[in-house]
Please model this.
Amino acid sequence: MEEGLALFEVKDLVRLGQVANMRREAVSPPEAVSYTITRNINYTNICVSECAFCAFFREEGHREAYLLTVEELLTKIEEAKRAGALQILLQGGLHPELDIAYYEGLLRQIKRRIPIHLHAFSPTEIVQIAKNSGISLEEALVRLKDAGLDTIPGGGAEILAPRVRQTLSPRKCSADQWLEVMEMAHILGIKTTATMMFGHIESYEERIAHLIQLRELQHHTNGFTAFIPWTYQPGHTALGGDTSGGFDYLRTLAISRIMLDNFPNIQASLVTQGSQIAQIALKFGANDLGEVMLEENVVRSTGVYFRQSQADLIRLIEDMGYQARLRNTLYHSC
Model:
């Protein structure tokens, strides 16, 4: 903890980035930066959590609330497949009624019709699914995997600290439950990513504690494929306030790369930072520039909208002196 906090005291941002970049070159190909092509489909915005930092959710019965039909969802996936998507990122709100049978049927229908990797259902959703179904987390994960779930995104982590979660999202799963889902998924052979949303009410100590918990779990399971940190976006949220600037983002990214020495990949958040800061992040420990995102709704609901074509993404990478490498969800080159 003390060493991590000391890194936040470093005044020389460039030097901090150099140290992080040295670590990045030790664990990933130094000449390359990876990216993928995805569509982030939010199948519902109905959510019982009502997080103070979220502009996307709607209560059940709200005029803007929706739940995509299976056919609507399949159409979106087929469109993405034709556009070159290598994965579908499938996430939604914490719906109060949808149970495990619904999700099993959804996954099976997708897999029968469209052969594509499903990176789906964050730990918070899985906790809600188990709760709605009256089953254990382990049973929920086993059944989802058997139905076609391939990997799990790291959404819903925000900051893994009880004080923060109790203040901002008291109806969402606890930090311990988030970590429990991830550990169980890894034991069952389901790879996952990890995330951190920072720059709201958390302290530096809570950021460091978040990273330590991820590092310790990775030490035991080696199930995380990547870590993706991004900054809180305040637009149209109940919490409001300001977002962290580029300095804090790059500093936190570099510290993440230094501390998460057992994570093979760190992803720059182009969707929240824009192209210029995302490019600089490639010299601050990031070795992945995320996705050519064919659709994204959650960050966009805050009024922030950064999107790049595949040609643009490749140019951003090559302009920084790296080779652009298309990869799949497991970070294997395609």
